[in-house]
Each structure stands twice: as C-alpha cells, then as structure tokens.
Amino acid sequence: MLRVTSVETLDELHALLLSLIPMFEADFGILCFLYSILVTHGLEKVKSGMLGETETLVDSTFGSASQCLLNLLLTGRTTPYLFDGKRDLSGFSMQGITEQPKTGFLSIMETLRYCEVGWFLKNPSTPIWIIGSENHFTVLASPCLDLVSIDQPAPQAKPGVPTSPAVSKASLWQAEREFDGLCESRDAGFLTYAKYEELLGRLGLPADEVCVERAKQAIDPDGMQIILRHPFLDYYYADEIKRQGTLRSEFQVIHFNGLPVGHPNGKVVYSYGVARILDPVEDSASSTQTPLDRCLRTKWPTIQVTWQEDLKPTIN
Hints:
Elements: H1 10-25, H2 29-41, H3 43-48, H4 67-75, E1 86-89, E2 92-95, E3 104-107, H5 108-111, H6 119-122, E4 128-132, E5 137-141, H7 172-182, E6 190-192, H8 193-203, H9 209-219, E7 226-228, H10 229-236, H11 238-247, E8 250-256, E9 270-277, H12 291-296, E10 303-307
Parallel strand pairs: 3-4
Antiparallel strand pairs: 1-2, 4-5, 5-8, 6-7, 8-9, 9-10
Keywords: Hydrolase, Protease, Thiol protease, Ubl conjugation pathway
Catalytic activity: Thiol-dependent hydrolysis of ester, thioester, amide, peptide and isopeptide bonds formed by the C-terminal Gly of ubiquitin (a 76-residue protein attached to proteins as an intracellular targeting signal)
InterPro entries: MINDY-3/4_CD (IPR025257), MINY3/4 (IPR039785)
C-alpha cells in the first residue's frame, strides 16, 4: 500500500530517506523509489511532459528507464528531448533541458546521430555523468572539480554601448553554451555577424563599434561574413582556454557498471582510469575505440583513457 509522508525541512527529508534505504534495497525496492519520485512530482505534471498516452516511463523491451524518466530524475522535468531550451518544428513545440543539472548525461546514440545532447546535460555542476547505451545505463565520475563549473546568468551588454569595467564578461563555459545555442544547427560551428553581435550582448563583451570591427578583422580575416567558434573563443577567452587546458589535460575517471559484464571473476567492481585530453594534432582516433570511448568523445573530442590493468569497461 502506498503511503504519503510529508516533511517540513531538508533535515527531516534527509532523515526520512535514510530510514527508507532498507526498503529501497529490498526486492522491488526500485519500484518503491519510482513511486516516490512520481508522487513527489505529481502525476499530472509528469504526464504533461510526455509525448501522449502511448509513451511509457519504463522501456517495454529492456525494462530500463525511458528518456522521459531519466530526464525527470536528472532535472526534475519529464521530456524526451536532450537538447537545450525549446525548439519549434512546423508549429510543434519541443521542450528540452532548461537548466544545468547536478548530474549529467552522455549517450552513445548521439554518436549515431539519433539525438542531440545539449550543453546542460554535458556540463553538470558536479563531475558525474550517466552514460547511456542502446539498452543500459552506467555511471562515469571524476574527483576533478575543474571539469565542471556552476552556470550563472551572463552579464548583459547593450550593442553600441561600451562595456563598463564593473561588468565582468561571462565565463568560458557560458560562452561555449551561448555560441552553440545561437548556431543555425548543431554542426554549423559558426554565426552570422548579426548573431555574433547578439552573442556579445549576452556575454557582456565589448559591443561598441570600434571593438566589434577590430574583433571581426581578427576572427574573420578573409571577410567571409561569419564568425567561427574556435577563433571566437581564442580571441575573447585565450587566457581561460590556456588555464583550463592545463587544469583539465589529465584527470582521473571512475566508471561503474552495475552488471558483472567484463569484470574479473564475474564481480561488479569500479573501473579506474586516467583520462588525457590530447592536442588535435596528436590525436589519432583509433578504429578500436570502445562504445564508451565514442560516448566520451561527444563531450571531449580528443579524450583518451588508460584503464588500470588494461581492463576496458563496457557500457552494455
């Protein structure tokens, strides 16, 4: 029988959850957890983000969480989409991810171009990511806090008005997200001049005529009338890129698969590795990349992971 319990403070909620751990760990405990999530968020609110009556929260073939349920757990909202913000397709409104979650998500399906995972899910506020394969979920984490940054509202500057010294520019993380959000498509990697000037306002960057013309000459020396992503970031965020490149060039990663697949003696264990972000010139993508390698490269395009004892984890 379902029972609804109300609490007044976070401390009471924390104590209640701790007391329920034995129930969650028992047979069918995962269903108790699922019911708790649904009742907490409200059934009508949960249903409002789903695609009609035919969509389910649990995959009928593999028994795993649907994308709607996973997004509910990660962000507090049900939606089958992984991109940032809202999109309209022939009058049909599609609501994606609206804010940075604490836990992120990377999907092997993006490498197959079946979906687009947005900036929010790729850049959570803690270095923990759910890894999605075709039919299973695993977890990747890192103790390196330099891999993440808290998303803050970017300072706003007005076109044609010099930026006040008191207004600091947005972070590199924000610049990457805002640039990608203004691109015509996920693979475009460039902005028109009009979008570029809009981006300057969003990021609190100098938007007066002199500064804009000087920047255009440096970023678009051939006069192509477009602003490419990497030259833009190199021009405005050279110091941040250099500093973060040093901080994030090598870091520890930990992978967990709840199934004893590929583990010695058939036991479920953590897999430890050292990740390196290679220079694009040095990177030679191997044809022997594992599905996990391909999945990680949707966030870090030149990542290379060396696993302890050369035991490469699986995401299936």
